[in-house]
Design a protein that fits this description.
585 residues, alpha+beta, 22 strands
Length: 585
């Protein structure tokens, strides 16, 4: 066994830094919380190279006394607590005294601060070592801190930082919850001289929500209830049915005015939203739970992002009832902003499209049926004349050959199509099957640079979140190549001018394509995969001809038996299996 050694202070400092600081967003979070704890009413964050080169934060808080400037860079130096009992009455954001110690260990830090009774002082720390401490002329009370060359002395960690778009999105994801929590404060966030957020004080959290995320206030419900017996207060802001997102990017949880993550809360609120939203889309909400700090354990995670609550099941039960009541009793009907679905400009020879609100697929869309189904001699559409070469699959007993001979016998839950073939029951997931069909058609059009598009009579205006704006700027040319023409309408809004014929629900498609830090790097496959997934919704009732038409379209695909995401489209239930279940010999 190797000899046991005591690690050097330098190694300990770098390991400890990794617990609290793993990317620029972690630094922004810690420093932002310090500014809030200092009672700042104005906070500015300026970045270069997505924070890798520089993170510059200025606030007008109460400042740091000269005698404390050097202490704050020591481990476990804090003004927030003095004993373990203080954790039971904790109201501040930070309390461990790890943040500046960890940041100073892996970067070049210059911090200048001035209080109301002292002149300004500046301290310079690099790699955990003090470079200087001297008086500094500062015009206002508050703190100015610059973090340069993050991870300069830990190149392995710096190497694993992601591209600027990804790191910038992480920082925005950190900043926005605090802007929602503190509408009375002003926030500025800029990158490379370009302003991403410029938020003036707002009269309410709902006003701030609208300003921070570019959403319509009219689509949100607000309620605030206090439960005296449980000593709990729950503040809710809920998006109604008109706020539909391709991911959970507009969902925020707070406990005692601290942003937190909770799988239990997330699951239960999204479960309630399933009552009003179609599959595959998510609602928007902001939940702030206030309770006795003694019933909250904020010390279970190094970044304090996760918390443990006493009587969590009881709180979730109350939250579910509140949410369901607001959405079901006070919610609105679905509204279409801008472009009515049937007002489209058609190319010569094309007919008016029918956009149904349910299962949006080519099989329930007469325009696509007319476009893809071959014509017989008298010019009428004929499903039987589809160019499907049954001999290609032969007559061997394979799933493909069985499916080519299958006969539609019914449907289950408007989700699964049932076909009979030989001595087997073939069950088709109609959503997964249609996604495979649309994916291959759209992907082929992209590869051939012949995407069939439909100009919109009235441009569809789409307000973007700060993260979506960053992705759109980098993805704009790829959207155009995919038949989605967009341009900038104002600082927060883009106008969609055209859409591919194959795709529906273009708002959800565009938001899906803009979602995620990898959006700018999407290739044709991932572009088509995301677009088709967002375009198709399950739940439509198919008649015999439509079900059989989908079967034949699916058989024409190169990979008919899996959807673009790897799920099966068809499964086989044999007679032998059923006989065994019913104890037949």
């Amino acid at each position: 066994m190797p000899q046991v050694q005591i690690l050097s202070p330098d190694v300990i400092a770098k390991i400890a830094a990794g617990e609290a600081v793993d990317r620029p967003a972690s630094v922004v979070k810690e420093l932002l919380e310090n500014s809030i704890d200092a009672a700042a009413t104005s906070i500015e964050i300026h970045l270069k190279d997505a924070g890798k080169e520089l993170i510059h934060i200025k606030d007008n808080g109460h400042g740091i006394a000269p005698k404390d400037l050097e202490k704050i860079f020591h481990r476990h130096a804090t003004s927030k607590i003095s004993s373990i009992e203080d954790l039971d009455t904790l109201h501040s954001m930070g309390f461990r005294g790890e943040a500046l110690y960890s940041i100073g260990a892996v970067s070049d830090v210059t911090l200048a601060s001035r209080t109301s009774i002292d002149q300004g002082w500046e301290i310079h720390i690099k790699g955990g070592l003090r470079q200087n401490l001297e008086p500094q002329s500062l015009s206002q009370i508050g703190t100015d801190i610059r973090i340069a060359e993050i991870f300069f002395n830990t190149p392995a960690r710096r190497k694993f930082l992601k591209n600027n778009t990804s790191e910038l999105n992480q920082i925005i994801n950190i900043v926005i919850p605090y802007t929602l929590l503190y509408p009375e404060k002003s926030f500025v966030l800029s990158h490379a001289g370009k302003t991403l957020l410029d938020l003036k004080p707002a009269p309410s959290r709902l006003d701030r929500l609208a300003a921070s995320l570019n959403v319509e206030m009219k689509h949100f419900l607000e309620t605030d209830q206090e439960f005296v017996e449980e000593k709990i207060r729950i503040q809710l802001v809920l998006g109604n049915i008109n706020v539909q997102r391709p991911r959970r990017d507009l969902q925020f949880f707070f406990v005692n005015d601290r942003p937190v993550e909770s799988k239990n809360f997330s699951f239960n609120l999204n479960d309630v939203y399933k009552l009003i939203l179609p599959p595959g889309v998510y609602g928007a909400f902001m939940v702030n739970i206030t309770l006795d700090p003694a019933n909250v354990d904020v010390n279970i995670h190094p970044t304090k992002r996760e918390v443990r609550l006493k009587d969590e099941g009881r709180i979730i039960s109350i939250l579910r009832r509140m949410t369901e009541y607001q959405l079901m009793q006070k919610g609105q009907t679905r509204q279409v902003e801008g472009l009515p679905a049937n007002e489209l400009i058609f190319a010569p020879g094309q007919t008016q499209a029918k956009f149904n609100a349910g299962f949006q697929t080519s099989i329930s869309d007469e325009r696509l049926l007319r476009h893809f189904v071959p014509r017989n001699d008298n010019g009428n559409a004929s499903i039987d004349s589809l160019p499907l070469d049954f001999q290609l699959f032969g007559q061997e007993n394979t799933l493909q050959s069985k499916f080519s001979r299958a006969r539609f016998i019914g449907a289950f839950l408007q989700k699964y199509l049932l076909f009979e073939a030989d001595q087997s029951l073939l069950v088709v997931d109609q959503h997964a099957a249609q996604e495979r069909i649309m994916f291959e058609k759209f992907k082929n059009q992209l590869e051939q640079a012949k995407v069939e598009t439909q100009p919109l009579l009235t441009p569809l205006l789409l307000k973007l979140t700060p993260q979506e704006k960053i992705a759109w700027e980098e993805l704009r040319e790829k959207l155009s190549a995919a038949g989605i023409e967009t341009n900038q309408f104002d600082d927060e809004t883009i106008a969609i001018q055209s859409q591919p014929l194959l795709l529906k629900n273009i708002e959800l498609v565009v938001r899906t394509l803009l979602a995620g830090s990898d959006a700018p790097r999407m290739d044709r496959d991932s572009l088509a995969r995301r677009a088709c997934k967002a375009s198709i919704v399950a739940g439509d009732k198919l008649d015999v001809s439509q079900a059989d038409y989908q079967r034949k379209q699916l058989l024409e695909c190169k990979d008919p038996f899996t959807c673009p995401h790897g799920r099966p489209t068809v499964i086989e239930v044999t007679q032998n299996f059923l006989d065994r279940q019913f104890l037949r010999s």
